[in-house]
Amino acid sequence: MSHVRYDCTDGYATLTLDRPDVYNAFNEEMILELNEALRRARDDDDAYAVVLTGAGEGFCSGADVTDMPDWSEQSKEEYGAYLWSVQNVVRQLRNMGKPTIAAVNGPAIGAGCDFALACDVRYVGEDAVLREGFVGVGLVPGDGGAWLLPRLIGESKAREYLLTGKDITPEDALEFGLAADVTADPLAAAQEFAERVHGLPATAVRYTKRLVDPQQDFETYCERAIEYQWECVTDPEHEEATQAFSEGRDPDYDREFTP
After folding, report:
1. PANTHER family attached here (predicted)?
2. Are 180 and 204 in contact (CB under 8 A)?
3. Strand pairing category for 121-125 and 100-104
4. What range defines the domain where residue 189 resides?
5. Total domains present in the chain
6. pLDDT tens for residues 139-169?
7. Do both 193 and 222 map to the same domain?
8. Do 56 and 108 sit in the same domain of this protein?
9. Helix axis angle, 111-118 relative to 145-153, nearest 10°?
10. 236 and 124 in one domain?
């Protein structure tokens, strides 16, 4: 791939958006590659978690308007197909069976902000910024931002950011619980988190992620929990984890890499 780097080491995959000269703004080719990289991470048995970050000083500054077709000369169907592919990055991050972690090392603007919001956990750099800046250029948050942000920080505060396009600073992100931490090295923090996740029973981690669903009612949660818990109870890693706990030692899972 030309614009997305894929690396799987130490039990997790790191996807790096690689157009640093434009703060990793995406063109059509990059979106296709990112979708493919996410599918690869989904199917990679050696990846127990997925880290998304950007090369250089940016996370993702949204669409590269200098490297896009003139949409006014295209059909609605053509534009819809393109926007669907951008939305599908958010869709894949949300639906990934493995934990997803955003290392927001610089500006995350527009759809780039939505990519970060779609991840399960965010580590934000001290000089980074998240911005739903669509209204400023006469657009709506077409990639999921107006759905994601209210669920993460509450409807009233989300409306403030969505309707004005003002910056979400690192301090704001931490205060609202949007960021797990603000750090000088968000990639190192994200990778450390990924390694910690890899050191836990994988079935339990993946089903725990599925249970975190604000849209479900409590009875649905309980029904799903019975199914998921049974899968965990019959999982060999659960047996090893409980045996190790009773013996006062670290668990030894049957994997090539164990933190």
Report:
1. EG:BACN32G11.4 PROTEIN, ENOYL-COA HYDRATASE
2. no
3. parallel
4. 4-198
5. 2
6. 999 999 999 999 999 999 999 999 999 999 9
7. no
8. yes
9. 50
10. no
- C-alpha span between 233 and 86 (Å, rounded): 38
Regarding whether 64 and 8 lie in a shared domain, the answer is yes
Tokens at 77, concatenated:
């169907």
Residue with the two structure tokens 């994200």:
190
End-to-end Cα, the chain, rounded Å? 29
pTM of the model: 0.93
Question: Is residue 255 in some structural domain?
Answer: no
Write the pLDDT tens digit of every residue in 163-210: 999 999 999 999 999 999 999 999 999 999 999 999 899 999 999 999
Give a three-class secondary structure readout of 98-128.
Answer: CCEEEEECCEEECHHHHHHHHCCEEEEECCC
Q: Are residues 67 and 18 in the same domain?
A: yes
Based on the domain organization, do 25 and 125 belong to the same domain?
yes
Between the alpha carbon of residue 12 and those of residues 9, 36, 159, 193, 205, the distances in Å are 6, 17, 35, 10, 14
Q: Which helix (H) or strand (E) holds 54?
A: strand 50-54
Rounded Cα–Cα distance for residues 113 and 110 (Å) = 5
Supply 3's token pair: 């614009």
Question: Is 150 within the bounds of a domain?
Answer: yes
**Is 182 part of any domain?**
yes
Residue 252 falls within a domain, yes or no? Answer: no
Return d(Cα 37, Cα 259) in angstroms, integer: 24
- Asked if 57 and 106 touch (Cβ cutoff 8 Å), the reply is yes
